[in-house]
Amino acid sequence: MNRLRNRTWVLPVSVALALLLGLVPLPGLLQPLRPYWLALVLAYWVIETPDRAGLGFAFCIGLLADLLYGGILGEQALRLVVMAFILQRFRARIRFFPLSQQALAIGGLLVNDRIIDAAIHLFAAEPVLPWSYWWAPLLGMALWLPLYVLLDALRLGKRGR
């Protein structure tokens, strides 16, 4: 238990890196494929440490992301709170899935996130997202396994052998 207390830096650092990865400029062709790093990192923390990452946490980092990314204020916060709520509701089931099934569940949540994003753009009378933006959840689903293993190793202090 003492080792876990010494690893409290992993949560804020992982969120900060996810925010920075969302700011990295990409060529126009690759922009629609950008995974929603913040949602992936949030999903890990809600599944593994729900006492540290919940709806309030999701809302706060969503507002921070809205300010950093310059979008509609509250858009990211809403998207992340919806994802965190669904993850909290089904946490007991998702946590004990094999990682391949967890990746499918995360992919479904990322598709749900795209639907919410498209609805927000529709209601705000902003341009509709192009069809290429629907590929990003597949990339996020593929990144779930390495991200989960990396964050788990950092959180628990495991060393590769």
UniProtKB/TrEMBL annotation:
<comment type="similarity">
    <text>Belongs to the MreD family.</text>
</comment>
<keyword id="KW-1133">Transmembrane helix</keyword>
<dbReference type="InterPro" id="IPR026034">
    <property type="entry name" value="MreD_proteobac"/>
</dbReference>
<keyword id="KW-0812">Transmembrane</keyword>
<feature type="transmembrane region" description="Helical">
    <location>
        <begin position="54"/>
        <end position="73"/>
    </location>
</feature>
<keyword id="KW-0472">Membrane</keyword>
<feature type="transmembrane region" description="Helical">
    <location>
        <begin position="94"/>
        <end position="111"/>
    </location>
</feature>
<dbReference type="GO" id="GO:0005886">
    <property type="term" value="C:plasma membrane"/>
</dbReference>
<keyword id="KW-0997">Cell inner membrane</keyword>
<dbReference type="GO" id="GO:0008360">
    <property type="term" value="P:regulation of cell shape"/>
</dbReference>
<protein>
    <recommendedName>
        <fullName>Rod shape-determining protein MreD</fullName>
    </recommendedName>
</protein>
<feature type="transmembrane region" description="Helical">
    <location>
        <begin position="131"/>
        <end position="151"/>
    </location>
</feature>
<dbReference type="Pfam" id="PF04093">
    <property type="entry name" value="MreD"/>
</dbReference>
<dbReference type="InterPro" id="IPR007227">
    <property type="entry name" value="Cell_shape_determining_MreD"/>
</dbReference>
<keyword id="KW-1003">Cell membrane</keyword>
<comment type="function">
    <text>Involved in formation of the rod shape of the cell. May also contribute to regulation of formation of penicillin-binding proteins.</text>
</comment>
<keyword id="KW-0133">Cell shape</keyword>
